[in-house]
Amino acid sequence: MKAFASQGDVSEKKATFAKLGEGAYAYTTEGDPNSGVIVGDDGVMVVDARATPSLARELVDAIRTVTDKPIRWVVLTHYHAVRVLGASAYGAEHVVASEATLDLIRERGAEDWASEVQRFPRLFRAAEAVPGLTWPTITFETRMTIRLGKREVQISHPGRGHTKGDTIVWLPEERVLYSGDLVEYGATPYAGDAYFGDWPSTLARLAALKPEKLVPGRGDALVTAEASLAAIEGTRRFVSELYEGVKRGRAAGHALKRVFDDVHRDLSPRYGRWVIFEHCLPFDVSRSYDEAGGIADPRIWTAERDLEMWRDLQSAPPS
Ligand SMILES: [Zn+2]
Prior knowledge:
- There is one protein chain.
- This protein is an alpha/beta fold.
- The chain is about 35% helix and about 20% strand.
- It contains 8 helices and 12 strands.
- The strands form 2 sheets. It has a 7-stranded mixed beta sheet. The chain has a 5-stranded mixed beta sheet with strand order 8-9-10-11-12, with helices on one face.
- A hairpin with a 2-residue loop joins strand 1 and strand 2.
- Helix 4 (about 200-210) runs antiparallel to helix 5 (about 225-250).
- The protein is globular.
- Bound molecules: zinc ion.
- Zinc ion binds near residues 78, 80, 162, 181 and 190.
């Protein structure tokens, strides 16, 4: 059986801290979860906090190479542990999230934490330093604007996709988009908590912004309008093809394992080289199979359910 989730992934990734525009930075990590940094007149905003305080301190060190202004804002693009549990290290005054993200932290934050630590041992090596769940201090329903001095930062929930509460950060003047896991580039979209029916139309709203630069949830930053749209479109294609395949299998009366094997076979040639493909696909097919069967909201993943599902799906297909 394949190693569970990312347990077989032990190779260190190299971080790149790149300037995309005046005061707008991407912190990308060769397919590990990315963060964004926005430097305003009076302080710094971090978009996605990283998995642990120790990983967060690496980002703080990078920020200190370009500014000594205080880190005042942390924005959470969604509730996943690998992006939120480092938040304490910034000493920020405000942690911003959507109402729907707060709901998810309340409802399943603890289960998700236990699950993700088990899925990503390399990222959570220093997990004992996490002081607890990350609680937003400011929430919004659909949108809010934060002014970092003269700079305007638009924060919004463009619809459901990767999770119920997905949030994007948009710099309207520079046309830089921080998409969180709604968009991936060269990395497989994780969709275990997704809304497959909604994700494509949410992505259409991102494309309509016409970003000139885009920091995806995972993968390199895109630094042209064409590349940004291509990343959005690549994510849409993966999500749509996967869901179509699952719906076809389910309509034919196939059980989950058979649907997984078929979808894995069909998607591997096009997407198998994207990072965390083998990790994500069982979760993605499990959730989309539920959604195709009318289960409106993703069922909560626990450390136990993770392993059970893996045993059921990642064993070799019958030959
Ligand atoms: Zn995520």
